[in-house]
Amino acid sequence: MNLNVDYMISIIPLMTSAATYTIKITVLGVFFSFLIGIAGNIVYYYKIPFLSGFFKGYTEISRNTPIIAQLFFLFFGLPQVGITLSGFVCGVIALSFLGGSYMVEALRSGIESVSKIQKESGFALALSKTQILVYIILPQALRTSLQGLFANVIFLLRESSLIGAIAVPELMHVARSEISMFFRTEEVLLMLTFYYIILIAPISIFFTFLEKRLRYAR
Amino acid sequence: MQDNMNWLEFLISERVLLLDGIYQTIYVSLIALFYSLIGGLLVGFIRCIPNKISAFISRIYLESFRIIPLIVWLFAAFFLIPRFMGRGFSSEASAIWVFTLWGSAEIGELVKGAIQSLPTIQRESALALGLSKTQLYMYILIPQAVRRLIPTVINMATRIIKTTSMLDFVGVIEIVARSRQIIERTVEPFIIWSFVFFFFFFLCYPLTLWSRHLEKKFR
Lengths: 218, 219
Hints:
The complex is a heterodimer of chains A (218) and B (219). With 218 residues, chain A is mainly alpha-helical. Chain A is 82% helix and 0% strand. Chain A is built from nine helices and no strands. Chain A has helices at 5-10, 12-46, 49-63, 67-77, 87-113, 116-124, 129-159, 171-182, 185-217. In chain A, helix 8 (171-182) runs antiparallel to helix 9. Chain A is flat. With 219 residues, chain B is mainly alpha-helical. Chain B is 83% helix and 0% strand. Chain B contains nine helices and no strands. Chain B has helices at 7-13, 15-48, 52-67, 70-85, 91-116, 120-128, 133-163, 175-186, 189-218. In chain B, helix 3 packs across helix 5 and helix 5 crosses helix 7. The A-B interface holds A 60-61, 63-66, 68-70, 72-73, 76-81, 154, 158-159, 161-162, 165, 172, 175-176, 179, 185-186, 189, 192-193, 196-197, 200-201, 204 and B 1, 63, 66-72, 75-76, 79-80, 83, 158, 162-163, 165-166, 168-169, 176, 179, 183, 188-190, 192-194, 196-197, 200-201, 204-205, 208.
């Protein structure tokens, strides 16, 4: 295999701007899915009647459909009924729709991991439901949830590679068009892998480090 | 958009392509799941061996699928295998290869988790009763591990099904590709993409429910 190193260096600016796009879309996706996760857990915690059912239904739909189907529906399906969204907006919505349910589950498993006796003790001390949530459950739950939350961030970063399907200039899409223009497949794929490692490996390492620290703290 | 046309009639009129796409999606998923199960059991047992070198290699194997998106692997297989092997590989075959490697890594992790989650007292009691290593695995560990494994493997099946939707990129003619073909001709994206969305939902949701049911039953 003969790698053309000059070519690989020449596509660095292009790939970097694509990586920036990927980061942008993922950060927004993570942010909104985290909000959905918090909203869902507030609804579950206070057992708000109608909304609980809504979030349950949403979780099932989001977890049992692929992001490609969600994206194509948003980007190609909706314009026919008069709703036209830009590729970027579609990407963020799809990523948040997908990630939201994962965040709901990650936070929920943390909240459920707090033993029942803690809540009961809180009640016995005449704390309100909100006080119990804020002062007793959340500090402990967030620590347990952290693992799931980080796994979800990595998951969303990986899934963002599929948003290229609707022609937004993220890493995978740029790499694909580069391959089809110049046929330097090995070089482009190598660079692509390299970029994904740069993006994801630090999160993965930080996450392992954090996990060890938290386990030590306990 | 033909307003007066019933959407159900429209879908029925396009049944040939849609059914072919559905068949391909399910076919690829089943084959990939089957190979992944075999590979996953193997990987799982290797991961249980307390050996630093094998642990390191299997760790790298798993991480490489967790860090690099599957679509990149698919592209690599699709473009690079023919170049190195010197002969063409159908897009379906390369897709199944990649899915098997990915599925084996993931199922291997599940197998390892299932075996290690068994209380050590089970192993100790069996050894105290004078069972051999083979008997220990055959009669004590594997039957219990399988029970814990089945729900997670069903979950993995839904993940594989969902992931097949990206095979359109590398030229496998499954449901997404067929849908695009239909839309190019009929210009009815809303109905078709809604159909695809709910097709995946109604394929995966029963599996999710089944897995949840088994998880409760085995607990």
